[in-house]
């Protein structure tokens, strides 16, 4: 997957592997006010998901994967922007 | 055919190993149940390579190894348990001249053995044509033994496992005053961020020779990818730390880079650079499946290059089977980095440095003894 | 890999024996360095061996034991008695697990608990040796109710329909798990019928991002599933120590209902007691069916056709009952090996106590016998083995002087022939001198000089089985223990077996036990003595004979007859029981080898033969001499079963 930093958000897309935790953490630390966009996320390793949750930031976008949408991110996605 | 002597007091283990190597097809195996049988088989069976268990009744594996190195120096691969205690004994064995070690097969047989059999066979096959590491040569060993005996109160006892472990670590490794290779008066390099080291088979002794001569105020951090299981890298770092002037530590948690410190990546993981608050740090990362060896020297070099320009990096590729590190270091060399390769004569296995040299990726190809001197020359001019 | 398992079973047991010997030596002298080294090596190798099989609890336990021993070798404190005892327990436990691997190819469900308990004791004050083997992360099971209560109030799970949820789980992955290539989330995704999860900080709260390590797992996952507990557990089979699973009921009040049955296994474990009961009852069934016979006989007078139908039905029922009985007997058949295999270890232990070295060989130990037999054979065999070690084998010096190897040989051979097994215990010790036996028996007042002199050499050897007799020249720790040879004989005979001794002075002794392999039901012959019906075990009968009463000749005060060219003493059963002696022109004889020599019992009549469960006599009957037990007859009456060996002794 890729961790892309845009103007106001960190975009996670594709299949997030354990390796992606490092660039994600670096991006989160570097941009403390960016939201996290998971619309394009297809799969996510717990290493990535736990950082999203630990960051406690608004999560935007509805991933296509029902598991991510309704189960893994069910709770942070309810914190609406 | 490779003539392999399997020395193990457990019939189960002998049978398992015999089966694994029989399967490989190019081995002719003999077995010995204890050290005495093993020593007798040295001349009777004339093995090309020996696998040796450490714990045996009577003369134990380390004492047996010691005798093999005197009576008929033969490449020996230790059969080690992957525990901390096992690591200490294994490192002692490597210091005594064992070429390599393989983890004792474990795990439910049907499931796991197939996976590790390939590794076992590859390592032993490689070891069969390895050189006995230099530190194991007679003078070194006699000196070690003499020192051990002195510490043990003057008794002329043969080396025993409980005693030389402390004794040997109490002896500073052989220190040659670092001197420059006569043919080269190197210019000092400036702006170096890190020295990257890739090393595998024969590594512990080679690292001793590389790090031992460096002074505590060596100006650069040294980051080492030594292929090893996870439980071995901690004991290795502690052992080196005791014998070296520079600090040697294992990387388990993320560490900011400090000069005069050598970082050994935890085994069964990779080692990568990252930046936090603008400060470069080194951290262990889960192994990437597309690499064969871990910690991966290639990945280490690549991740360093994401942070630093090539000119700010020194890379050293040392003894080891395979070719890890060769590709990334050759690329580093092409792009202006500084790259050293250990030479063939001083390598236990000239796989990795050989691949680097073949790719034309080394600035200098040096014997083990001269690598530290070259680093010092680059550091001090 | 079967061969490796076989190899492991052999080697593992040798190592256990080795460790035992070393522990015994350390028990005598805690500073015995070679013994410590030996124990360490045995433990170490054993650990390496169990690691090759699915025996993780054993591996962990031995790992901790090894660490402790390594500490002792480095001088971190000697092993005190309590620790030696714990190590002994660890080795014994491993021994039992080796049995389990052989029997069920897996450890019992309680292995982890047993292992953890011993680990805690051996490791002592929280020091668990090295933590680089996966030691059990204390599973969150203790706080069962806590996490379930917390789970009920998780906002993340609020939208799960509580009516559908059947199972709750809490998964606390090892912080290092990412380095092993695990993704806990994908494991959770594979939980069947997953309804919802909550990804929570493993600690109290998520740490600051700045303090986070990207590759360290800091989460725990709780969830609910509509699948049952076993299915949920199966999804986490790779991380059993990191998972808590519990049935989930919508209302907390009902949450303490009985747990679900755990997973089905191809092998069903049944309490031995229940199996015994089943065997008893199947035996009783066979007997009860016989009650139909007299009914059919009476019916024949009234309605022959109906009687024939009844007979046919009875035959059919009896056939089925017979098959049932055989099946039950099969189920109860177990290998003798677990029993016999403990003997070498105990023998070595015994030998070590009296400073003798022995070599113990076993053959044929895989013979299958009824469970009852296997269970009850251990004690008597152990006593025989100890006797051989203690009294049979000479001290090494004496052995060498007489040209024997210093190491004493003890052999145990088991042979199965048809329905019987014979167990032959041999030693190459000093043997038993019949003359000395006679003298000792007289000296102890067990028999008169004449009686002793009248015994053949072979018979004299059997004096050893007389109550109160012992050949020990000096009391040792071993001989002071447990039962005497008379009790051994009694035990063997309770198992419907016989015991005999042969000996060659100076060369050794051979003790032979012959036992029925299947002891559930016993074939009985009903005989009459006076007006009584009595049962005699068919397996104790060599033959029955009808001879002319005049062929029974008085010999001194006794009687004898010639049977198959042998003179056989004849005893009158009725007279033995204090009844009116049997008379008549025809002498009906039951010939038996149950006593010291072949003997014929004269009875009034032979009755039917049938199989019955012989119950050991209890209460009043136990006090009656010559009664081995009781069996139920076809008419429901109780038949006394004679104890022939005692009767003719």
Automatic annotation (TrEMBL), chain A:
This is STAS domain-containing protein. It comes from Sphingobium fuliginis (strain ATCC 27551). The lineage of its organism: Bacteria, Pseudomonadati, Pseudomonadota, Alphaproteobacteria, Sphingomonadales.
UniProtKB/TrEMBL annotation, chain B:
Its main location: cytoplasm. The active site is at 200, 227, 324. Signal peptide: none annotated. CDD domains: CheB_Rec, REC_CheB-like. One of its GO terms (biological process) is methylation. Its EC number is 3.1.1.61, 3.5.1.44. The keyword Iron does not apply. Pfam families: CheB_methylest, Response_reg. The modification 4-aspartylphosphate is found at residue 53. It catalyses: L-glutaminyl-[protein] + H2O = L-glutamyl-[protein] + NH4(+); [protein]-L-glutamate 5-O-methyl ester + H2O = L-glutamyl-[protein] + methanol + H(+). Residues 149-183 are annotated as: Disordered. GO terms for cellular component: cytoplasm. Gene3D superfamilies: 3.40.50.2300, Methylesterase CheB, C-terminal domain. It is found in: Cytoplasm. Belongs to the CheB family. Contains a C-terminal catalytic domain, and an N-terminal region which modulates catalytic activity. This is Protein-glutamate methylesterase/protein-glutamine glutaminase. It comes from Sphingobium fuliginis (strain ATCC 27551).
From TrEMBL, chain C:
One of its GO terms (molecular function) is phosphorelay sensor kinase activity. InterPro entries: Bact_Chemotaxis_CheA, CheA-like_dim, CheA-like_homodim_sf, CheW-like_dom_sf, CheW-lke_dom, HATPase_C_sf, HATPase_dom, His_kinase_dom. PROSITE patterns: CHEW, HIS_KIN, HPT. Transmembrane segments: none annotated. It is an enzyme of class 2 (transferase). The keyword Iron-sulfur does not apply. The modification Phosphohistidine is found at residue 44. Residues 521-649 form the CheW-like domain. Gene3D superfamilies: CheA-289, Domain 4, Histidine kinase CheA-like, homodimeric domain, Histidine kinase-like ATPase, C-terminal domain, HPT domain. Residues 286-519 form the Histidine kinase domain. It catalyses: ATP + protein L-histidine = ADP + protein N-phospho-L-histidine. Signal peptide: none annotated. Keywords: Kinase, Phosphoprotein, Transferase, Two-component regulatory system. One of its GO terms (biological process) is chemotaxis. GO terms for cellular component: cytoplasm. Its EC number is 2.7.13.3. It holds the Pfam family Hpt. Residues 1-101 form the HPt domain. Involved in the transmission of sensory signals from the chemoreceptors to the flagellar motors. CheA is autophosphorylated; it can transfer its phosphate group to either CheB or CheY. This is Chemotaxis protein CheA. The gene is cheA2.
């Amino acid at each position: 997957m890729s961790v892309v930093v845009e103007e106001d958000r960190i975009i996670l897309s594709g299949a997030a592997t354990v390796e992606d935790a490092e660039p994600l953490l670096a991006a989160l630390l570097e941009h403390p006010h960016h939201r996290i966009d998971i619309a394009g996320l297809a799969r996510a390793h717990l290493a990535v998901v736990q950082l999203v949750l630990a960051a406690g930031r608004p999560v935007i976008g509805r991933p296509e994967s029902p598991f991510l949408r309704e189960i893994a991110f069910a709770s942070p996605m309810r914190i609406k922007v | 055919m490779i003539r392999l002597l399997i020395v193990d007091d457990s019939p189960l283990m002998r049978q398992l190993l015999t089966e694994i190597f029989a399967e490989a097809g190019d081995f002719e195996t003999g077995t010995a149940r204890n050290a005495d049988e093993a020593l007798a088989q040295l001349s009777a069976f004339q093995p090309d390579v020996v696998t040796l268990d450490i714990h045996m009744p009577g003369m134990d594996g380390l004492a047996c190894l010691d005798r093999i190195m005197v009576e008929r120096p033969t490449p020996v691969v230790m059969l080690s348990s992957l525990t901390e205690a096992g690591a200490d004994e294994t490192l002692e064995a490597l210091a005594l001249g064992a070429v390599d070690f393989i983890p004792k097969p474990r795990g439910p047989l049907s499931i796991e053995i197939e996976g590790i059999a390939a590794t076992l066979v590859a390592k032993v096959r490689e070891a069969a044509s390895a050189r006995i590491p230099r530190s194991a040569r007679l003078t070194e060993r006699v000196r070690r033994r003499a020192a051990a005996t002195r510490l043990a109160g003057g008794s002329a006892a043969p080396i025993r496992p409980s005693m030389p472990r402390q004794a040997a670590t109490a002896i500073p490794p052989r220190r040659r005053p670092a001197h420059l290779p006569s043919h080269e008066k190197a210019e000092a390099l400036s702006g170096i961020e890190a020295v990257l080291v890739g090393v595998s088979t024969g590594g512990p002794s080679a690292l001793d020779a590389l790090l031992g001569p460096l002074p505590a105020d060596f100006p650069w951090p040294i980051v080492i990818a030594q292929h090893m299981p996870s439980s071995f890298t901690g004991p290795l770092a502690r052992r080196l730390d005791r014998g070296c002037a520079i600090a040697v530590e294992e990387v388990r948690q993320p560490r900011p880079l400090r000069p005069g410190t050598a970082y050994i990546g935890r085994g069964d993981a990779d080692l990568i650079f990252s930046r936090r608050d603008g400060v470069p740090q080194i951290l262990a990362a889960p192994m990437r499946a597309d690499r064969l060896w871990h910690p991966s020297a290639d990945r280490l070099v690549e991740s360093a290059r994401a942070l630093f320009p090539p000119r700010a990096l020194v890379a050293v590729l040392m003894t080891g089977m395979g070719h890890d590190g060769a590709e990334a270091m050759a690329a580093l060399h092409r792009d202006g980095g500084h790259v050293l390769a250990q030479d063939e004569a001083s390598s236990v296995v000239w796989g990795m440095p050989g691949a680097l040299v073949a790719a034309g990726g080394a600035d200098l190809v040096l014997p083990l003894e001269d690598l530290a001197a070259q680093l010092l020359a680059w550091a001090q001019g | 890999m079967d061969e490796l398992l076989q190899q492991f079973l052999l080697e593992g047991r040798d190592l256990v024996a080795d460790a035992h010997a070393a522990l015994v030596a350390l028990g005598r002298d805690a500073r015995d360095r070679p013994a410590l080294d030996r124990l360490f090596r045995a433990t170490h190798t054993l650990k390496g061996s169990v690691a090759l099989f699915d025996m993780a609890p054993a591996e962990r336990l031995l790992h901790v034991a090894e660490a402790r021993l390594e500490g002792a070798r480095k001088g971190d404190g000697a092993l005190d008695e309590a620790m030696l005892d714990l190590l002994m327990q660890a080795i014994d436990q491993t021994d039992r697990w080796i049995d389990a691997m052989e029997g069920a190819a897996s450890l019992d469900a309680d292995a982890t608990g047993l292992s953890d308990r011993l680990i805690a004791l051996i490791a002592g004050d929280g020091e668990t040796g090295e933590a680089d083997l996966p030691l059990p992360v204390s599973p969150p099971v203790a706080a069962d109710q806590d996490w379930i209560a917390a789970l009920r109030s998780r906002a993340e799970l609020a939208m799960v329909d509580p009516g559908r949820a059947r199972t709750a789980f809490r998964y606390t992955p090892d912080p290092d798990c990412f380095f092993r290539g695990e993704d806990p989330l994908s494991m959770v995704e594979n939980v069947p019928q997953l309804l919802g999860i909550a990804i929570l900080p493993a600690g109290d709260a998520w740490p600051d991002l700045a303090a986070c390590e990207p590759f360290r797992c800091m989460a725990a996952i709780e969830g609910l599933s509509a699948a049952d507990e076993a299915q949920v557990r199966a999804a986490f089979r790779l991380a059993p120590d990191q998972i808590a699973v519990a049935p989930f009921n919508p209302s907390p009040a009902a949450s303490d209902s009985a747990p679900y049955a755990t997973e089905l296994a191809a092998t069903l474990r049944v309490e031995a007691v229940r199996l015994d009961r089943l065997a008893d009852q199947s035996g009783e069934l066979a007997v009860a069916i016989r009650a139909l016979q007299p009914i059919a006989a009476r019916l024949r007078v009234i309605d022959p056709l109906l009687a024939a139908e009844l007979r046919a039905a009875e035959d059919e029922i009896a056939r089925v009952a017979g098959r049932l009985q055989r099946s039950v007997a099969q189920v109860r058949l177990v290998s003798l090996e677990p029993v016999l295999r403990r003997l070498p270890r105990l023998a070595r232990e015994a030998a070590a106590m009296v400073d003798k070295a022995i070599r113990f060989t076993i053959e044929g130990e895989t013979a299958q016998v009824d469970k009852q037999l296997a269970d009850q054979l251990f004690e008597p065999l152990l006593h025989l083995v100890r006797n051989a070690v203690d009294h049979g084998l000479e001290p090494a010096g004496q052995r060498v002087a007489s040209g024997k190897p210093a190491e004493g040989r003890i052999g145990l051979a088991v042979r199965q022939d048809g329905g019987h097994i014979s167990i032959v215990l041999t030693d190459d010790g000093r043997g038993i001198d019949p003359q000395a036996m006679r003298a000792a028996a007289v000296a102890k007042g067990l028999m008169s000089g004449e009686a002793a002199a009248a015994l053949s050499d072979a018979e004299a050897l059997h004096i050893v089985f007389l109550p109160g007799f012992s050949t020990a020249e000096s009391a040792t720790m071993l001989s002071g223990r447990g039962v005497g040879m008379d009790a051994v004989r009694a035990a063997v005979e309770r198992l419907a077996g016989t015991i005999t001794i042969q000996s060659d002075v100076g060369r050794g002794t051979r003790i032979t036990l012959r036992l029925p392999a299947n002891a559930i039901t016993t074939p009985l012959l009903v005989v009459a003595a006076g007006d009584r019906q009595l049962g005699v075990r068919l397996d104790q009968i060599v033959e029955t004979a009808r001879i002319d009463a005049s062929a029974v000749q008085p010999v001194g005060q006794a009687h004898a007859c010639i049977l198959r060219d042998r003179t056989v003493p004849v005893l009158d059963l009725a007279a033995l029981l204090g009844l009116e002696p049997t008379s008549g022109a025809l002498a009906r004889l039951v010939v038996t080898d149950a006593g010291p020599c072949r003997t014929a019992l004269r009875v009034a009549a032979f009755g039917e033969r049938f199989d019955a469960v012989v119950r050991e006599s209890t209460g009043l009957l136990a006090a009656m001499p010559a009664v081995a037990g009781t069996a139920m007859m076809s008419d429901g009456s109780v038949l006394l079963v004679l104890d022939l060996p005692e009767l003719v002794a």
